[in-house]
Amino acid sequence: MSNIIFATKLKQLRKEKGLTMEELANKIGRTKSTISRWEKGERSPKMFEMVKLEQIFGIPAEEIMYDVTATSDSIIAQISATSSKLHEPRQEKVLTFAKKELSEQSSEQDTSIHEDAPSYDYTYYDQAVSAGTGQYLGETHRETVSLPVSYDADFVVPVYGDSMEPDYHDGDYIFVEQTYELSDGDIGVFELDGGAYVKELRLDGMSGSLHSLNAKYDDIAITPDRDFRIIGKVVGRYGGFR
């Protein structure tokens, strides 16, 4: 944002002085292309260049860079006044230190935001349900996990495979409301012949099938001779662990 403010302010000041880009460039010992890049917001001047701009336009660097009027006792004004008296190598040290402080400040803010985010506890089963050709249920391990999303769900399970892409991906966590009744078009978790699936339920009269959102997978027919049951309805997903 500061680059855009500076670019606009520099162009304004240059025109008010009646200077062309080339004339301004000559005054500070730079090329016309340098001035052009400054006014496009692509680059910012170094400290020694800001000192020359202060001298040319007769206003503090703070006002040129941020388009704000500096007060004599403001911290930024003091930094600008002090650093303008330093030789270029020492100005570079000031700039490096300021960038380091800004980076640390940003990291602290990111950590604070992450720590302040609310989390919600869910019952988690480590047995993946298949978004593919079927994942054997077997014995599952149950534990409690905390996630930064809220759903009215009875448990959470991971997804295995890609048959439900683009909506559900391998490694996603899905939130399941335990129920034994689903309607046509519902996304649910199902057990079929010992395998666990996450699929869309398709009902057509007395027949049904498990439908994959990924077109490269065929539907799985639900027939009377197969061991089939509904485990629950998918009410949400979380992809934070992929």
Automatic annotation (TrEMBL):
<keyword id="KW-0805">Transcription regulation</keyword>
<dbReference type="InterPro" id="IPR015927">
    <property type="entry name" value="Peptidase_S24_S26A/B/C"/>
</dbReference>
<dbReference type="GO" id="GO:0003677">
    <property type="term" value="F:DNA binding"/>
</dbReference>
<dbReference type="Pfam" id="PF00717">
    <property type="entry name" value="Peptidase_S24"/>
</dbReference>
<dbReference type="InterPro" id="IPR001387">
    <property type="entry name" value="Cro/C1-type_HTH"/>
</dbReference>
<dbReference type="Pfam" id="PF01381">
    <property type="entry name" value="HTH_3"/>
</dbReference>
<dbReference type="InterPro" id="IPR036286">
    <property type="entry name" value="LexA/Signal_pep-like_sf"/>
</dbReference>
<protein>
    <submittedName>
        <fullName>Putative repressor protein-phage associated</fullName>
    </submittedName>
</protein>
<dbReference type="InterPro" id="IPR010982">
    <property type="entry name" value="Lambda_DNA-bd_dom_sf"/>
</dbReference>
<dbReference type="InterPro" id="IPR039418">
    <property type="entry name" value="LexA-like"/>
</dbReference>
<feature type="domain" description="HTH cro/C1-type">
    <location>
        <begin position="10"/>
        <end position="64"/>
    </location>
</feature>
<keyword id="KW-0804">Transcription</keyword>
<keyword id="KW-0238">DNA-binding</keyword>
